[in-house]
Amino acid sequence: MNHEFRLACALCDYVKVQYPAVVRDMGWFAVPNGEYRNKVTAGKLKRTGVLPGVPDYLLSRPSGQYKQLWLEIKHEVGKVNHEQKAFLLNHNSDWEMTLVGYGYTENKYIIDTWMKGAAHELEWMRDCPGKRARNKGWKERASNATEESAMRG
């Protein structure tokens, strides 16, 4: 069983427990584009409109100014491929957000932040889709939070 599959199962279990109404109302669902397929099946899917690069999940519940979130999940060392990068760039707009989440904790943070209506708190992540840039962004945010806390303290 691969890491991304286990991550997807864990996130789905989390969403089902924490946000059952969203699951019930079909506001959270997987886009089953991944996995190996033989050439015949791949050809049939392509013919019916399946596109490479579409993120793993769609969360179609508004958060702030955004109407929906496309979420590509990766395990901690996963990489975004060319088609995924193209989709992510083409679908970031004033009304929809696309993000890559690395590992369980970051993906959970993205989902929870979105669900509390605070999508604006995720905007910095769009600017650092790669793992290295994301780690730098987390460190900067932690440093800024420490400085703010010291100034209040």
Descriptive report:
By secondary structure, the protein is α+β, with helices and mostly antiparallel strands. Helix content is 51%, strand content 13%. The protein is built from seven helices and four strands, in the order H-H-E-H-E-E-H-E-H-H-H. The protein has helices at 3-18, 20-24, 39-47, 82-90, 103-115, 123-126, 131-152, and strands at 28-30, 57-59, 68-74, 96-102. The chain has a four-stranded mixed β-sheet with strand order 1-2-3-4, sandwiched between helices. The longest helix is centred in the last third of the chain and has 22 residues, at 131-152. The radius of gyration is 17 Å and the shape is globular. The protein starts with a helix and ends with a helix.
Proportion of helical residues: 40-55%
How confident overall, as mean pLDDT?
A: 88
Q: What percentage of the residues does DSSP assign to strands (E)?
A: 5-15%
What string gives the helices and strands in order? HHEHEEHEHHH
- Which of globular, elongated, flat, extended, rod-shaped describes the shape? globular
Distance N to C terminus: 48 Å
Describe the largest sheet. Answer: 4 strands, mixed
Cross-sheet strand order for the largest sheet? 1-2-3-4
The total count of strands amounts to 4
Count of helical stretches? 7
Low-confidence stretches: none
Query: If you compute it from the alpha carbons, what radius of gyration comes out, rounded to the nearest whole angstrom?
Result: 17 Å
Supply the helix-strand structural class: alpha+beta
